[in-house]
Design a protein that fits this description.
- The protein has a single domain, classed as 3-Layer(aba) Sandwich (Rossmann fold).
- The chain is 40% helix and 19% strand.
- Helix 1 packs across helix 6.
- Bound molecules: flavin mononucleotide.
- Flavin mononucleotide binds next to helix 1 and strand 4.
- It comes from Acetobacterium wieringae.
- InterPro entries: Flavodoxin/NO_synth, Flavodoxin_CS, Flavoprotein-like_sf.
Amino acid sequence: MKITILYFSKTGNTEKAATYIKDGLLTAGDFDIRLMNLNQLESVDTAFVNDSETVIMGTPTYVANMCWQFKKWFDDDWSCQLGGKLGAAFATANAMHGGGDIALQSMISHMLVRGMVTYSSGAGCGRPYIHLGPIGIGVNNGVEERKGFFELFGKRVGEQTIRLFKKL
Ligand SMILES: Cc1cc2nc3c(=O)[nH]c(=O)nc-3n(C[C@H](O)[C@H](O)[C@H](O)COP(=O)(O)O)c2cc1C
């Protein structure tokens, strides 16, 4: 099964979170995983995204919302066929009350508009609770501190991918 981790990262925090999520996914199954940074538009492999069962999307928080680059991609680029795929979101931010949850909510709304089936693992999976998705908070070390949190999120999304898409 294929999983895309599509993110925007300019200064590296969201990219680092994406690599931790990848590590977590690999503890759940032998997935073919690709990381794609919207900062390098040519790196979006549409064919791979379209073949993916799951697309995980990550954004830095900009002005208490998803970054404009991701919003632009959602608005302008409909070449990826996301309908029916599993979607999950993650974010990074500088401040605890900097709007990371709003960024996640915004990403999830856009996924729903594309017809994706969304998943965060939810607080129902027990501690540590992951409500809308994981957020790395804090200058320089926020993502490192939450390494295990991102890995766990990856593991849970991987398990859900298997539950939904594994052929009987
Ligand atoms: C234009 C801009 C707006 C930002 N707005 C916020 C904000 O509202 N809240 C917050 O906590 N951090 C904000 N930040 C900080 C980024 O979310 C944070 O540094 C993020 O981890 C950067 O991700 P990256 O290293 O993957 O590019 C902003 C950064 C930029 C460049």
